[in-house]
Amino acid sequence: MKRPLLSLLLALACILPLTAKQTMTMLSGEELEVAIVTLGETEITYKKASNPGGPNYTVSRDKVFFIVYDDGSREVITAPDAASAVAPDSNYTGSSLSAIARGSAEQMIAADTVPVKKHFPRISFYPRASVGYQETSTEIEDTSINFDWGGFAWAVDLNILIPTGNDSAWSIGVGWTGLGGDVKRKNGKKDAGKSSLTGMYFTLPVSYWYACGDWFMLGLTQRLDILVSQQMEGKKVKDVLNGFRSPTTVHGIVTIGNFDAGVEVLFNWTSAFKGESYTWSPTLGINFTLGYRF
């Protein structure tokens, strides 16, 4: 019993490698579905894919254009220009290729040599600037007092862009962010006055960028904003704004060459105003942005 079983296993071991199919394209344009047995220096031995247990066939290498393997990879055996230099025999000459077949072959070889276009080809300096509007709302707990802070917002970032693929990249940098506008106070439904408030932040942005084609890309930025100064009615004050912000920004960018322009929407996850009695006061913003990848 052991001997027939061993023979069967050996037979399967010989046959299974031949079940993989390859496509062998001849310089004449003919395509053959085959199972390659050997790739010799002058000849290629194969079996017909439809009959893997059948006889072996051989063909001269100079008659084979390329082979596509079962994993999708392609190996050029004889280029058309090389085939033209081969001495003719009774069955084939390199010059007998039809114009259509030669043109198709040359295009397929050229496709292998054309470099893939990279949207982010190298590490680069990437300054960006944005201007827009921000709005923050909050209220004091256990009271009917609430106030809104809204107005001008701007940011300037100096980034280093680091490619992670043909169409994706990370950027890290440093920058400055400024917020300003009127704080409008209300006590119930009654207006309780307003005053101007500005804040300046040192910021550390980290961004991920993905190119969705030649002319558009998406971005996601997480910032850490560190309060540097704050002024109320043009005078320096303390204990109004929180010392740190952590806004998240989503970008939609139109790209023209290395020049970028677009819109970004910002949401600050941390409370804008300092004080335990204030409810959560998120900041929403929308900005227009410009950048250039050097």
In short:
The protein is mainly beta and 294 residues long. It has helices at 2-15, 80-84, 99-113, and strands spanning 22-26, 31-39, 43-48, 57-60, 64-68, 74-76, 124-139, 145-163, 168-187, 190-211, 216-232, 235-236, 244-245, 247-256, 259-268, 283-292.
Characterization of the model:
- With 294 residues, the chain is mainly beta.
- The relative contact order is 0.11.
- The longest helix is centred in the middle third of the chain and has 15 residues, at 99-113.
- The protein has 2 domains: 2-113, SH3 type barrels (Roll); 124-292, Porin (Beta Barrel), CATH 2.40.160.20.
- The chain is 12% helix and 54% strand.
- It is rod-shaped.
- Tell me, briefly, the overall form: rod-shaped
Describe the sheet with the most strands: 8 strands, antiparallel, barrel
Number of helical regions: 3
How confident overall, as mean pLDDT?
A: 83
- Structural class category: mainly beta
User: How do the strands of the widest beta sheet line up side by side?
Assistant: 7-8-9-10-11-14-15-16
Distance between the termini: 74 Å
